[in-house]
Amino acid sequence: MTFRKATKADVIHIVKMLSDDPLGQQRENYQEPLPEAYFEAFGRIDRDANQELVVIEEATMGIIGTLQLTFIPYLTYQGGVRAQIEAVRIRKDRRGAGIGETVFQWAIERAKARGAHVVQLTTDKKRADAKRFYEKLGFIASHEGMKLHLS
Predict the structure, then answer these.
(1) Is CATH 1.10.1410.40 the classification given to domain 2-136?
(2) pTM value?
């Protein structure tokens, strides 16, 4: 299994994985050709030193997963850095093979290497299985997250 920085050519594979579940189908627009908005978003992510969009590859299977790490510098914790894990997806035909745990171990080690003092994530309340998986990895639901959708 190889972890590498995503390229523009990977965007179509990433969006396909993001749209491959009931919640993703509601918010993504996977089609070929892919809408230009995805490539514009990739460009913004790619230029931002605090963003790491990653793909996971297997030699014989190609891209089997993705995640995005965001490093958030802030003043609390004496100028600490927090790492936010987002958009973790494993390709449907590779789920249940223990890949998710390996992906999170990699992400946590990457966060440590970048000097983060905490790793955080959010999960939709409709994803009960995901919440149990994160708890198994040691994540604690210590805060109540809130969102205000602007569009």
Answers:
(1) no
(2) 0.92
